[in-house]
Amino acid sequence: MIKKLLFASICACLGYISSASAQQTLKLDSLPKIHNNIFINTDTVAVPAVSENPLTMGQNFIYKLRLDSIAKAVPLPYNEYVQQYIDIYSKRKDMFGKMIGLSSYYFPIFDKALKDYNIPQEIKYLTIVESQMNPHAISRVGATGIWQFMFGTGKAYGLKMDNFVDERKDPIQASYAAAAYFRDAFEELGDWLLAIAAYNCGKGNVKRAIDKAGSRDFWVIRQFLPKETRNYVPAFIAAVYVMNYSGKHQITAQASNMFLKTDTVQTTRFVSLATLAKALNIEEEAMMALNPSYKKKIVNGTDDEPKRIIMPKLRDIDYAGIYDVLNNQEVDVSMKVIEASTDDVRDLRKKKVKTIAASSVVYHKVTAGQNLNAVADKYGVEVQDLRVWNGLKSKTLVPGQKLKIYAKNRTPLKAPSSFLSYKVKTGDTLSDIAEKFDGATVQSIRRDNRLSKAGLQVGMILKINKG
């Protein structure tokens, strides 16, 4: 009996030494130095690349146990791919210190939206991989906001983009749109890691990878996914780990400059955020940080569509000044709302200016102080169109510069038709179909066709409301 106990003790000691040795090995930075700069410019969608054939690592049970302790609905497996991203992210002490500070403001917003759609709370950590919780983040291809919505997908999930507002930058609206997307993705794919992969590359790509691999396990189908998506899920798991175990990696929370205590009002008038900031005696930038979706720093509320304003917690002395701004101040701005056109760079590359009669072209001479927004408003066109027509690489204009402007084609109004028909093809998803039709959303298609789930059958005929 004594011999057996002695043998077990020796084995336990050897196991501890082996584990400690493995842990020491994992601390070495085996990745090329070029991967140290994981976020480049404003392209926050791109996930840092790592070796496709990482060195074989012994299971590090400390990391595994920590991930197991976090995992709830979303599985957080530990493997060599996840370890590589833990190595990368745990060295970004300044970045993750800022993330912890910002999470005090943003995570309650994300949590509420996810909870309302019955989505696992762990999904909120994707905003770190996507945008570093920056509402103004824009990727190489035009994905925008904290949740990095593309124009078409955002529109399909009910986000508004016009000359006054881009709701992809609204943390509240965009969080509800993201939650709706994850609901649909999980219903279609039946697995949270696959739903997360779909958020990066689209449900169609994930379905094709499933068919090629003959499996619904992310780690099995991984080789058939786009390169960025292969790394996207391990990066997500690593971000969850580092945010929950930051103290183990000497990461210190940094104070956020966001107001943590706020009040919210709805307005049916046009309100200047700069004037409101002055009445509250706070910096204009602080007011814009709370309301990042308003392009012109103007809240364009109307009786039909009241708009939300978030401001620091009000004190008694603030009420008179705030009341005056909300109810009596007039804003000198055109109230015409112009729906935005796509800012998807992939679509813009394909877009060609159609040949238009010379009489339909006008030239505008830029005056001092004019910007693209002012010119676009004057002629009732979109800023993005001005940039395409004139080959502009930036929004900066020079007095005296001439801009080419194409008059919009006017076509006779046709008798209204309630619905169009669409035949479902292989690989189609509701969000893909909604993007094909102006005014259609995932919700409207589900409602009009009485779809209880997002699942579609090839050959099914859908009614699409033209709006």
From TrEMBL:
Q: Where is the LysM domain?
A: 362-405, 420-464
InterPro entries with a match to the protein in the record: LysM, LysM_dom_sf, Lysozyme-like_dom_sf, Transglyc_AS, Transglycosylase_SLT_dom_1
Which Gene3D superfamilies would you find in this protein's record? 1.10.530.10, LysM domain
Keyword field: Signal
- Which Pfam family is an annotated match for this chain, by its short name? LysM
Q: Where is the signal peptide?
A: 1-22
In terms of SMART domains, this protein maps to: LysM (SM00257)
Q: What's the superkingdom here?
A: Bacteria
What family does the database annotate? Belongs to the transglycosylase Slt family.
State the protein's name: Lytic transglycosylase domain-containing protein
Q: Which organism is it from?
A: Pedobacter jeongneungensis
